[in-house]
Automatic annotation (TrEMBL):
The chain crosses the membrane at residues 476-496. Residues 137-247 form the Fe2OG dioxygenase domain. It comes from the Eukaryota. Keywords: Dioxygenase, Membrane, Oxidoreductase, Transmembrane, Transmembrane helix. PANTHER family: ALPHA-KETOGLUTARATE-DEPENDENT DIOXYGENASE ALKB HOMOLOG 3 (PTHR31212). This is Alpha-ketoglutarate-dependent dioxygenase alkB-like 3. GO terms for biological process: DNA alkylation repair. GO terms for molecular function: dioxygenase activity.
Length: 498
C-alpha cells in the first residue's frame, strides 16, 4: 500500500516553510537519498550514505565504545536488549525517559566522552547544514549500543514532549557506526500501531546518516529489527547516535525558562531546493533489486534465512517457488553477498568448528552439556554468542595442553575477525558484565589458594564451612592447652607456698 495522502493534510511547505536538512544541499548532497517525501503528512526522511568515511567512523566507534557511560537496558526476562546513554549540551540538564526506561541524566561524563561527542556533532552538522550557526546545533543526543544482532529497538516514535514532535515539526538526525542493521519506518494507525503494508526498509551502514524531519514523529513509527536468529549472536556491534532538539525543558533543567526553539528554515541561510521526486516517493523501494521492485510482496517469514522481523514475517517476494526477503532474494539471483553477511557466516562457521572440536575431546571436566544446562538448555553451539562461547571456554577446568592451543587460537581469531576491528574482550567490558568478572576473579583466587579442592558454587561453600570447622577445633585445643597450663601454674604456686 502506498502512503495514501491524508484527507486533512498538514500545513503545506509553501504556507509554513520547514527547516529541512534534506533540502539544503549539505552533506554529500549528490549521494543523498530521499526515503520519504509525504507532503500531506509533512513527513520527510533522507539518508546520506557514508557521510563519515570508514577511518573516521571506526575511530569514533572505538572512542564511544570505550568512553560513553553505557547503561544496560534489560527486557522482561532479564536479557540485555541494548545499552544506552544520554548526552546534553549547551547548558541543558534534562533527563530522558522513553517507554518505561529512563536513560538519563547520566551520572558522570568523562572528558573523553564529551570531547568525542562535541567533535562528532561538529563534524556531522557542519557538513549537513553548513549555514547553520553552531549554537543552533542540537542540544541533546541519545546513544544506543547494540552488542550483537539480537539487541534491537521495538516500534516507537520519538514523540516525547521534550522534543515537541506530537504537535510540531521535529527533526531527528541519526548516525550509524559499526555493523549494518535494518531500520524500518511505517505509518502509525489510530491505535498507535505500525501499519505493516506501509513498511519502508532501510539498510543503515557504517558512517550513514539518516534524518527524520517535519511531522515524522506524529504520523510514523520506526523500528530496528533483530537479525535472523542463527546469525544474530555473531552480528558485529553497532553504535547509533540520534541528535535531537529539546524545545520543552524539564522543570528541573537550568534552561526551563529560557526560550529554546529548534532552528527554522531561514536559519539554514540557503534557499531550499526540493528533490525531483517531490510528488510521491513512498513507499521507498530502492533497497530491493530492480527485478523485485514491482512483483507483489507478501508478509511472510523468509523461507531461507527464517527472518521474521515483526509479527511473524517481513516483506517477501516469490523466487522459484520460495518466498524470500530482499537479502536472500538478491543472493539467490547471484548478486554480490553483503560483506557483513559474509563475515558473520565465516565467524560463525569457525567458532562453531572450534567448539565442536573441544566437545569431541570428552576429557574436559566442565562439559559442554553442563554449560548448556546452566544457560537454559541450548544445545547447538551455533546459537551462542561469541561472548558466551568464550565464557564457557574460559570456565573449562584443566584444559589439556593440546586443547589450550586451540582455545588460544579461537580467542585470537575472535579478536581479529569483527568487522570494526574491536576485540571481543572489549565487547565484554562494554556489556558491563562486571558481576561475572568479579566472580571469575574470586574463583581464580580460590583456585590458586586451594588448587586441589576449589570448584564453583556449592563446592566453594563446603570448602569454607570445613575451614571454619578446622579453625574452631584448632582454637578449642589451644584453649584447652592454655587452661591446663594455667592449672599447672596454680598447682605449682600452691606447692611452693605450702
Ligand atoms: O538505532 C537506531 O537506528 C534507532 C534508535 C532509535 O530509534 C532511538 O534511539 O530512538
Ligand atoms: Fe527512535
Amino acid at each position: 500500500m502506498a502512503w495514501e495522502p491524508l484527507h486533512a493534510p498538514e500545513a503545506a511547505l509553501e504556507s509554513e516553510p520547514l527547516f529541512l536538512l534534506g533540502a539544503n544541499g549539505g552533506g554529500n548532497a549528490k549521494d543523498k537519498e530521499t526515503i520519504i517525501w509525504d507532503e500531506s503528512r509533512r513527513c520527510f526522511a533522507f539518508r546520506w550514505p557514508s557521510l563519515l568515511d570508514q577511518v573516521s567512523a571506526k575511530r569514533f566507534f572505538q572512542d564511544l565504545q570505550a568512553s560513553a557511560p553505557w547503561d544496560q537496558l534489560r527486557g522482561r526476562h532479564g536479557n540485555v536488549v541494548r545499552s544506552t546513554c544520554w548526552y546534553v549540551r549547551n547548558g541543558c540538564s534534562c533527563g530522558y525517559t522513553y517507554g518505561n526506561a529512563r536513560v538519563g541524566l547520566t551520572r558522570s561524563i568523562c572528558s573523553q566522552f564529551k570531547k568525542t561527542m562535541e567533535d562528532l556533532t561538529a563534524l556531522v552538522f557542519s557538513s549537513l547544514a553548513p549555514g547553520l550557526s553552531p549554537d543552533l546545533w542540537p542540544n541533546s543526543a541519545n546513544l544506543n549500543y547494540y552488542a550483537d544482532g539480537l539487541q534491537s529497538v521495538g516500534w516507537h516514535a520519538d514523540d516525547e514532549s521534550l522534543f515537541g514532535g506530537k504537535c510540531q515539526d521535529c527533526s531527528i538526525v541519526s548516525l550509524s557506526l559499526g555493523g549494518r542493521r535494518e531500520f524500518w519506518i511505517a505509518l502509525k494507525d489510530d491505535e498507535a500501531e505500525p501499519i505493516k503494508e506501509t513498511v519502508v526498509e532501510v539498510d543503515l551502514q557504517d558512517g550513514d546518516v539518516l534524518s527524520m524531519e517535519g511531522m515524522m514523529q506524529k504520523h510514523t513509527m520506526h523500528f530496528l529489527t533483530r537479525e535472523p536468529h542463527h546469525r544474530a549472536p555473531f552480528w558485529p556491534p553497532r553504535i547509533n547516535i540520534t541528535w535531537r532538539w529539546i524545545v520543552n525543558h524539564r522543570p528541573c533543567c537550568f534552561l526551563r525558562h529560557s526560550a529554546t526553539s529548534a532552528p527554522c528554515a531561514k536559519d539554514l541561510h540557503v534557499p531550499q531546493s526540493f528533490p525531483g521526486e517531490r510528488v510521491a516517493s513512498s513507499p521507498w523501494m530502492k533497497p530491493w533489486p530492480d527485478e523485485f521492485q514491482h512483483p507483489p510482496k507478501e508478509w511472510r517469514c523468509c523461507m531461507q534465512c527464517r527472518h521474521n522481523g515483526w509479527q511473524g514475517g517481513r516483506n517477501c517476494v516469490e523466487v522459484k517457488g520460495e518466498w524470500l526477503c530482499r537479502h536472500c532474494a538478491s543472493a539467490c539471483r547471484g548478486q554480490e553477498v553483503d560483506p557483513t553477511d559474509r563475515m558473520v557466516e565465516e565467524l560463525r562457521r569457525r567458532l562453531v568448528g572450534k567448539v565442536k572440536l573441544l566437545q569431541k575431546k570428552r576429557c574436559l571436566r566442565n562439559s559442554w552439556e553442563s554449560f548448556c544446562d546452566r544457560n537454559q538448555g541450548f544445545r547447538d553451539p551455533g546459537r551462542y554468542s561469541p561472548t558466551l562461547l568464550l565464557s564457557w571456554l574460559e570456565s573449562v577446568d584443566e584444559v589439556p595442553e593440546d586443547l589450550q592451543k586451540v582455545l588460544q587460537e579461537a580467542q585470537a581469531e575472535l579478536a581479529t575477525m569483527s568487522v570494526d576491528g574491536s576485540s571481543t574482550k572489549e565487547k565484554l567490558v562494554i556489556q558491563g558484565d562486571q558481576e561475572r568478572r568479579r566472580q571469575n576473579k574470586l574463583l581464580q583466587h580460590r583456585r590458586k589458594k586451594h588448587p586441589d579442592k576449589a570448584q564453583k558454587g556449592g563446592a566453594v561453600l563446603r570448602l569454607d564451612v570445613s575451614e571454619l570447622y578446622i579453625a574452631a577445633r584448632r582454637s578449642l585445643s589451644a584453649l584447652a592447652v592454655l587452661g591446663s597450663l594455667g592449672l599447672m601454674i596454680s598447682y605449682l604456686r600452691f606447692i611452693l607456698i605450702v
